[in-house]
Amino acid sequence: MTISADKLTTQLGWRYAVKRFDASRKISAEIWQALERSLILTPSSYGLQPWQFAVITNEEVKKKLPAISWGQQQPLDCSHMVVLAARRTMDAEYVERYMSSVTETRNLAADAMDGYRRVLVSTVEKMDSHLDWNARQVYIALGQLMVAAAMLNVDTCPMEGIDAQAYDQLLGFHGSDYTTVVGCAVGYRHPEDAQAQAVKVRFSADELVRRF
Q: For the domain 11-90+127-208, what is the CATH superfamily, name and number?
């Protein structure tokens, strides 16, 4: 089912970075399942999906988050706090695991993708920084989550203002193959969040868009 162009732009205009969430409102299981699926369906370079997503709903864990989020309350008051983590490295073993998933999912012969496999291994082995590349992929997932949420009338607040190392310690990423890159608080705006009424400020299309 295709949505209208007006609906898309209306929802994107409705979206803003929430400063105050309504802690009494929780996202339903059905809506959250769709949002979580939007994360999983995020496109990535070569399809390698170099990320993990930590979803925090436990209130005792959430109470620890403002202290490691520059005192911001959104991680506590939101319904679901999502932490997007990138793989620190990318190697032939990971590529092999991905390619095995491709051949199994698509019911292909085990050697059907050997040429592509060699290309991916060569590509990742030549990279100067796997983490920099993987972190950029993570921001694709962040954008997809925020747009999907807006289409379902769910609010978000992207958050770089967090202590990534402290989040790694809290969530068990420390010493693992993954590390925290960015957070996203997801839930519903508080009716008294004044920022909701602020007019969006954007440069004009003539300034931002170059047409050829």
A: NADH Oxidase (3.40.109.10)
